[in-house]
Write a structure and sequence with these properties.
Layout: H1 7-14, E1 36-38, E2 50-53, E3 60-63, E4 72-78, E5 84-91, H2 97-100, E6 110-117, E7 120-127, E8 131-137, E9 148-152, E10 156-163, E11 169-175, H3 177-180, E12 185-191, E13 203-207, E14 219-223, E15 226-233, E16 240-246, E17 254-259, E18 272-276, E19 282-289, E20 295-305, E21 308-311, E22 326-328, E23 367-369, E24 375-378, E25 380-381, E26 396-399, E27 405-415, E28 421-427, E29 431-439, E30 442-450, E31 460-467, E32 471-472, E33 481-492, E34 496-502, E35 509-516, E36 526-533, E37 542-551
């Protein structure tokens, strides 16, 4: 383990303005290096993406649904809409805490919208059980305000504000049938000029039932004297993009289909956001549902024809585009270095990397970073009625970065009592994990699998090997025995995975083959670390995570 304080870290703490090197993923990089890009530009689960530009049109900020995962509302930054990095989160914790201190899968932050207005950045999102919330900040990469409940009520999702030329503010939103009993409806209401309070009742502006069933995810714009709503319809895996326009924010709206899957392999394509560059080009970022991998983000060119936006490439000239696979990069007037969201982590800083999230509001007892080159994850006592890890709030997880990749981690597990275990997991409604568990004065390597965890199904546990401790505490005060291991998770195309382990980092032994991945509740499968133990009063064990490295 890295228990020395690195010189580089010392310099970073003394000089916080020192920039961190740009990260280039080995697993997926959309920038082809020749002036073109290949979709998806974010091959990770950034569901329901929305994007806005700074006033100059030179910097772009993207956020996405985070549901029950924390920190929530990821903020990504780009200068060319192709190369992205995570620069922060707008929501450290979800509210109310009494709901989200547990793993409330699928609840929380649904389909946010990010906008710039009058010197501030705003994010609105719907919590289908509570209403429409808003946060704001002067710097998207900085600290955001506390969540403000703009409209209280059930069923409201996918909100998007529009500040009009006269300073008035309007809000469009969709409706969740699971909470309110109807869906496929878009509504508009007026907010106070500061965007904090509803001052009118909602008006139905579009009824998508039947022909445009499951219309949702509206994004509200104004252009050339028209009020525009861009929205997907037809369902997440099979739908299409609509554009609708009117001379009043309340309609009536005329509607056209402006992008559909057509002959491509991009199913959906689903909701996203429109953005304009400083050079006047317009682009559309949207998601594609890839099942266990989640909802990945594509970038499409936008051309206006006969007063309507055509998204993607319209080869047959029917004014309905199809998604592009590879295309020229946006013209931004400068050469932009390749930059991808971080995946690998050396845990060399005394703060957690921005790629990591928890299934619930973070608690100090989950684990903490150190300045010594590792992150410490504590075992958590599971409930007396434990059936599977769907209940666990303390897993340290990140999104899958590609259809195929390998993640290798160096860890040390300290077990203080019988039954404590820790390891590497691919978590979803089905999950698989390779863990090391204390049994007596030794360790047992185990493969844990569970199908339909969300339905309460029990785990299946298979013993793989017995391991001697690599160390033991010499003093008889809550003594631990230790296991030093290298753990590996490999994902292959088709969402199948396998594990491997090594005691020396050189010779790896394969465990499992063709294990299925499955998405979580409204999110893709996530991989990372777990540390658990049976209910009781024993002192916690811990997993010291030295590093994790993601490769092809």
């Amino acid at each position: 383990m890295k228990h020395t304080f690195p010189l580089a870290l010392s310099l970073l703490l003394l000089h916080p303005a020192v920039s961190v090197a740009q990260y280039r993923s080995e697993a997926w990089c959309p920038d082809n290096g020749d002036g073109t890009y290949t979709n998806p530009v974010l091959n990770a689960d950034y569901s329901d993406p929305d994007v806005c530009a700074n006033p100059a049109g030179t910097d772009f900020y993207l956020t996405a649904s985070s549901f029950n995962c924390t920190p929530g509302l990821p903020i990504l930054h780009s200068r060319d809409l192709v190369n992205w990095e995570i620069v922060g989160h707008a929501l450290p914790k979800l509210t109310p805490d009494y709901v989200f201190r547990k793993a409330a899968h699928g609840k929380g932050v649904w389909a946010p919208c990010i906008r710039h207005h009058d010197g501030m950045y705003y994010i609105y999102w719907g919590d289908p059980d509570r209403g429409i919330y808003m946060v704001k900040a002067a710097d998207p990469a900085g600290k955001w305000s506390e969540p403000h409940l703009v409209v209280k009520g059930k069923g409201m999702i996918d909100p998007t504000p529009l500040w009009d030329d006269d300073g008035r503010c309007y809000l469009a939103n969709a409706w969740a049938g699971s909470r309110i009993g109807f869906k496929s409806i878009l509504s508009v209401r007026e907010l106070s000029a500061d965007g904090t309070t509803a001052i009118s009742n909602p008006v139905i502006v579009f009824d998508g039932n039947n022909a445009n069933r499951t219309v949702e995810g509206p994004k509200f714009y104004k252009r050339d004297g028209y009020y525009w709503i861009l929205a997907p319809a037809g369902g997440v895996p099979t739908g299409w993009q609509l554009a609708m326009r009117a001379k009043s924010p309340y309609g009536p709206y005329e509607c056209k289909t402006v992008m559909a899957q057509g002959s491509t392999n991009v199913n959906g394509p689903h909701q996203g956001g429109l953005v304009t560059t400083a050079q006047g080009e317009e682009w559309f970022l949207h998601f594609q549902d890839k099942g266990p991998y989640g909802r990945v983000v594509h970038l499409q060119p936008v051309n206006w024809v006969d007063g309507w936006p055509v998204i993607g490439i319209d080869s047959d000239k029917d004014l309905c585009g199809e998604p592009v696979a590879t295309f020229r990069k946006p013209k931004v007037g400068a050469s932009i270095a390749i930059q991808n969201p971080a995946e690998s982590d050396e845990f060399n800083a005394p703060e957690l990397g921005l790629q990591w999230q928890w299934p619930a509001n973070y608690d100090d007892s989950f684990g903490q970073p150190t300045p010594y080159g590792f992150f410490r994850l504590y075992t958590r006592k599971l409930s007396p009625k434990f059936t599977n890890l769907w209940e666990a709030p303390n897993m340290l997880l990140q999104k899958t970065p590609a259809d195929a990749f390998t993640a290798t981690a160096k860890v040390r597990f300290a077990a203080k009592r019988e039954g404590q275990y820790a390891g590497l997991i691919m978590m979803g409604m089905d999950y698989s994990a390779l863990v090391v568990k204390r049994v007596g004065e030794k360790f047992r390597l185990q493969l844990i699998t569970c199908t339909k965890a969300d339905k309460g199904n029990a785990e299946t546990v298979s013993d793989i090997a017995e391991l001697e401790p690599s160390a033991a505490d010499p003093i008889d005060y809550e003594p631990a025995i230790y296991s030093d291991l290298y753990l590996r998770l490999k994902v292959e195309k088709g969402a199948r995975l396998s594990f491997a382990y090594s005691t020396d980092g050189k010779k790896f032994h394969s465990v499992g083959a063709g294990l299925p991945m499955r998405e979580g509740k409204w999110i893709g499968a996530k991989f990372g670390f777990l540390a658990e133990e049976p209910a009781g009063k024993s002192p916690s064990g811990f997993l010291d995570i030295d590093w994790i490295r993601v490769t092809k």
